[in-house]
UniProtKB/TrEMBL annotation:
GO terms for molecular function: glutathione specific gamma-glutamylcyclotransferase activity. GO terms for cellular component: cytoplasm. It comes from the Bacteria. It is an enzyme of class 4 (lyase). This is glutathione-specific gamma-glutamylcyclotransferase. It comes from Idiomarina aquatica. Keywords: Lyase.
């Protein structure tokens, strides 16, 4: 799979017949909402968990020194809670560009907090994408994040804003919080 998945995503689903489409966000899409939406609601999807296993060449790192950002990994029995946005299909033009570094769109069922369900799209960077970094110790991931920066800013900002966004949703993600615990002492060393 090429580094840039924009063209692939455009062909994966024809959204032109939809009046609106639900988008499930679990990472930066929770805290950086740079697109118009019709409504939003916390939601969860079954069988997936967040992992900082995806490389970032375009936002929180560079091709030479990729940062580490989130993808979803299949984890039976786990539930991932995030924010769902109902958007006009043309918003995917912007989203495909933003999520172009290895993410593919998949349709998934999602459940809202009142128990109702909807089908929507989620961007997942699967392990066969060229920027995938894979599993590492959470302490090593924290060090990697502390050392990374890209066109969208520091990699630490991604992790801290995400962790704060999850707290606002009432979600404690053990993987995210373990990395934050390792990261915080490193930040105090900064001038
Ligand atoms: C998402 O937030 O749902 C996708 C991954 C990211 O942009 O951080």
């Amino acid at each position: 799979m090429p580094h840039d998945t924009t063209a692939i995503n455009k062909q994966r689903q024809d959204l032109s017949q939809h009046e609106s489409v639900w988008l499930f966000g679990y990472g930066s899409l929770i805290y950086k909402v740079d697109f118009p939406y019709l409504e939003r609601q916390p939601a969860s999807i079954e069988g997936w968990s967040r992992r900082f296993w995806q490389g970032s060449h375009d936002h929180r790192g560079t091709p030479e020194q990729p940062g580490r950002v989130l993808t979803l990994i299949k984890t039976p029995g786990e539930r991932c809670t995030g924010m769902a946005y109902r958007v006009s299909p043309d918003v995917f033009e912007h989203l495909d560009h933003r999520e172009k570094n290895g993410y593919l769109r998949f349709f998934t069922p999602m459940t809202f907090t009142d128990g109702t369900q909807a089908e929507g799209l989620v961007y997942i960077a699967t392990e066969d994408n060229a920027a995938f970094l894979g599993e590492a110790d959470e302490a090593d991931i924290a060090k990697h994040i502390a050392d990374s920066v890209g066109p969208s800013g520091k990699n630490t900002e991604y992790l801290l804003k995400l962790s704060d966004g999850l707290a606002e949703l009432g979600v404690t993600d053990p993987h995210v919080e373990a990395i934050r615990r390792h990261l915080e002492p490193m930040l105090q060393d900064e001038p």
